[in-house]
Design goal:
Radius of gyration: 26 Å
Number of helices: 6
Order of helices and strands: HHEEEEHEHEHH
Number of strands: 6
Shape: elongated
Helix content: 40-55%
Strand content: 5-15%
Length: 192
């Protein structure tokens, strides 16, 4: 049973932001400090990515572990997914992870919601890839103080790698000239 009234629960859920969250601000400050420039919540791209780096053709999504079901494992139930009984059994067999705990009250609703979020994320990233964009997903648990700098350095490394792949120097072959094939005597050789 929920400890809060319906009005209190509604007020709590309404207070949750989708933009300018703490994890997103950490990523933004870390990338800015490392010299990367970006745009926020690009309206024309599928999924309105949190950060868009046009120079790198890269979108960065900063996901909350709970809302996007980070590391949740599902126990598969043999049988068809079409019957309602099988769906409810499967929804109750989702295992919590260390960073994502599903509430005990109204569990079927939360499992279905998180599953829809995960499917929507995959679809949006697939559409972005079709448009030629790279996608990076940063999880909230990766931005905790012990792993924060390592995560931000990893993002910077990935962005630089993407840029070098797209814009890096190309290897060109050239014709060998006759002089390169000739054996020239070395100046330090002694005649014996």
């Amino acid at each position: 049973m929920d400890k809060l009234s319906q009005q209190q629960r509604h007020a709590n859920m309404a207070a949750i932001k989708s933009k300018d969250t703490k994890p997103e601000m950490i990523v933004r400050r870390g990338l800015w400090k490392r010299g990367f420039r970006y745009r926020l919540n690009h309206k024309r791209l599928p999924g309105h990515p949190d950060l868009v780096l046009r120079k790198y053709r890269t979108c960065i999504f900063v996901n909350g572990c709970f809302w996007h079901g980070h590391k949740l494992t599902e126990s598969m139930v043999p049988g068809s997914w079409t019957s309602q009984a099988t769906k409810s059994i499967t929804e109750s067999m989702v295992q919590n992870s260390e960073c994502c705990k599903i509430p005990k009250t109204n569990r079927e609703f939360w499992v279905a919601k998180i599953r829809r979020n995960k499917e929507r994320d995959k679809e949006e990233q697939r559409r972005l890839a079709e448009m030629g964009w790279h996608c990076i997903t940063v999880w909230e648990c990766e931005l905790k103080p012990p792993k924060r700098e390592e995560t931000l350095d990893s993002i910077a490394f990935t962005l630089n790698h993407i840029w070098l792949q797209d814009h890096g120097a190309k290897a060109h072959s050239y014709r060998k000239q006759e002089e390169e094939n000739m054996q020239m005597p070395m100046a330090a050789e002694t005649a014996e």
